[in-house]
Every structure is written in C-alpha cells, then in structure tokens.
Amino acid sequence: MHHTVEVESLSFSYPDGHQALRDISLSVAPGEKVALLGPNGAGKSTLILHLNGILRVQSGSVCVAGITVGEKTLGRVRAAVGLVFQNPDDQLFSPTVFEDVAFGPIYQGLPEAEVKACVQEALAAVRMDDYQHRVSHHLSTGEKKRIAIASVLSMRPEILVLDEPTAGLDPRARRGLINLIRELPQTMLVATHDIRMVVELFHRSVIMDAGEIVADGPSERILADEALLAAHGLEVY
Questions:
Q1: Helix axis angle, 97-107 relative to 141-153, nearest 10°?
Q2: 207 burial via Cβ count (<10 Å: 0-12, 13-18, 19+)
Q3: Which residues pair with 5 in a beta bridge?
Q4: What is the mean pLDDT of each run of 10 residues along the chain (237 residues)?
Q5: Side-by-side strand order, sheet with 59-64
Q6: Please, what's the b/e burial string for 31-44 (b: 16 or more CB within 10 A of its CB; e: otherwise)?
Q7: What's the predicted TM-score (pTM) here?
Q8: Distance of CA 183 to CAs 33, 115, 126, 177, Å?
Q9: If DSSP codes are grouped into helix, strand and coil, which group holds residue 94?
Q10: Cα 65 from Cα 41, distance rounded (Å)
C-alpha cells in the first residue's frame, strides 16, 4: 500500500538564496493525521506548498496519493490534495459562498448538477449548509475558515493540508474547528502552533526547525520532552 504522502530528500532554496528545506523525508500513511510543529521560519509552509505543486520540486521528490508531483500532474495533484491557507481571505474571492465552494468542481469540468452536489456535500461536512447565498467577506474568521475548508472538500480530496487552522479564532470558533477536524475522514498534515489542539487530535507529531525534521514520533512522547520543545522554540502549555 502506497503512503498517501511520500516526500523524499526534498531540498528547496528561494531565489534570494535562502535554503528553506534541507533534505526532508516524510511519509504519511492513509488516514493518518499528523501535526507539523516548529518555530516561524522552520520551513513548514514551504514544505506544505510543495504538496500540491504551488512550489516546484528543485531536488528530491514528492508523491501524493500515488501521483508524483510535477508539471504534467498538477491538475490531478490539486484534486487529490486540499490545501487550506492560514488566512482564509487568501482562499475566498467569489461574491458568494456557493461560488467559492463551487470554484474547484467547476474548474474540474463537472456538470452543473454534480457541482451543486459537491457544494452541498462540502458545506454539510463543515456544518455551513445554510450559508450558500451569504457573502464570504461578511463572515466571521471562524466561518471563513470553515468555508475555506469546504472550498477544498468540494474537490473530494484524499488529503487535507491545513496551515495554522486555529490561528486568529476565539475560543468558541476554535473548539468548533477542532471538532470539525476530528470528524473529517481525510489523511491530514496540519501545521500549527496550537499545542493543546495537537494533544487532543494528533497521535503523531513532526517538528521542523531551520529547514530540517528534528523529531518525528508519537505526540505524547514528543510533547513530554520539554528540552526538545524548548530547543526548537515551542511552548509547553
């Protein structure tokens, strides 16, 4: 059985010469939900942006859902991997919620009836069924985060990649989002600073620092290692 996410010896430098990833190898099994931890600038976002081809592989390889990420496979890769940005305003740009959530299925060329079914299914999954005709930019941050998740769920991805999903949420919206993440069946890689969420939801944690993976194992063990967390700028709560 192939791993849902298979990153091998991935290195990446930005045009200014900054090396953001150094020989990263990471496997995520089907159905596994993995937390990606590390200080700002550790390379978490750079890694995430490789998983659906927003950043191109320079050296090493990235394989998702059995598809090698490359120029010719981007359409299939983006259907298989739903990437939810930290700021939902980067993801929501249509006049209504329906149009935001329908964007992916329309882009995939699905017939109108199937587009509608995909949108309804995605909004139901995030408990936002009644929001189809609302204006996305009038919603609260918590509501926007849910719609952003729905906008990738509508493409029926195998893998969800979330960047700081609970950032900027009040306690009630955060609790709602954690419950939502728990219920979703997809394989997940979630970059976060929210250690309490990790304890609650993720059995496995990967710590990155300075473009390298410095720890990978059961969350219980990793989060109990105060010296490890302190060395990599992570707060024990």
A1: 20
A2: buried
A3: 28, 64
A4: 86 95 96 94 95 94 95 92 93 94 93 96 95 92 95 95 94 94 95 93 96 96 93 81
A5: 19-28, 5-13, 59-64, 67-68
A6: ebbbbbbbeeebbb
A7: 0.93
A8: 11, 23, 9, 10
A9: coil
A10: 27
